[in-house]
Amino acid sequence: xxxxxxxxxxxxxxxxxxxxxxxxxxxxxxxxxxxxxxxxxxxxxxxxxxxxxxxxxxxxxxxxxxxxxxxxxxxxxxxxxxxxxxxxxxxxxxxxxxxxxxxxxxxxxxxxxxxxxxxxxxxxxxxxxxxxxxxxxxxxxxxxxxxxxxxxxxxxxxxxxxxxxxxxxxxxxxxxxxxxxxxxxxxxxxxxxxxxxxxxxxxxxxxxxxxxxxxxxxxxxxxxxxxxxxxxxxxxxxxxxxxxxxxxxxxxxxxxxxxxxxxxxxxxxxxxxxxxxxxxxxxxxxxxxxxxxxxxxx
Length: 298
Prior knowledge:
Number of helices: 11
Order of helices and strands: HHHHHHEEEHEHEHEEEEHH
Helix content: 25-40%
CATH class of the largest domain: Alpha Beta
Mean pLDDT: 80
Low-confidence stretches: 141-147
Largest sheet: 7 strands, mixed
CATH architecture of the largest domain: 2-Layer Sandwich
């Protein structure tokens, strides 16, 4: 079995890199391993590129600039990062599935680039490690902006790697509130916690609904397979009332920001409402968000 050290040693070299790169990198100047470290270390909170360069110059007794590291790293192919990630994920999966139950996986997409490229990220919130990043190409479809493509791409990815998602809980924001997506997850034995759009009254068993209503059959299926949780969240905001430089008053406003969550975790004893809300909020942990967004835009 490969160790983490051996994974990096066997992967981060010029023979492997140049097979994946569009241009050949030369073994001179800044070390290949240092240029990867430069990129990965920057994903940490409150870390600057200048501080990383200073650290590398100190331990290597060099005097390279930030621009030099940017130029070296820019030529490293994305495929190398993905190769490293896949090998680390395989190593990790050899023992993690036996030691953890119901691992939380946050999913997110980003299509903010100029060409509207959709990148999907999957992040293990339980252990704070990325699982995979995959690009699904241009989002524009039939001349229209295809930003709602995330659910379709997430579904195709999960189908392709269905074994990765056993004993997991998918956490998704309102972009993933799709009746078909939730049915797909439930049918495949995958748990989920997804924030709804609006109040999700259609999933309330006591709410009358006509058979002619869109997605009627799927909605009726989900009514018996899901829980609808209303989390009353109070948000405090500080505002200032300025009446001249010498008359500034500060007020604290308490605002109610209710969050509607749909889940197929039906055991109230193991997963009470407040606990499920806490699990959902873990998706917004600063480390999770920063890491996901950083690598989605790599």
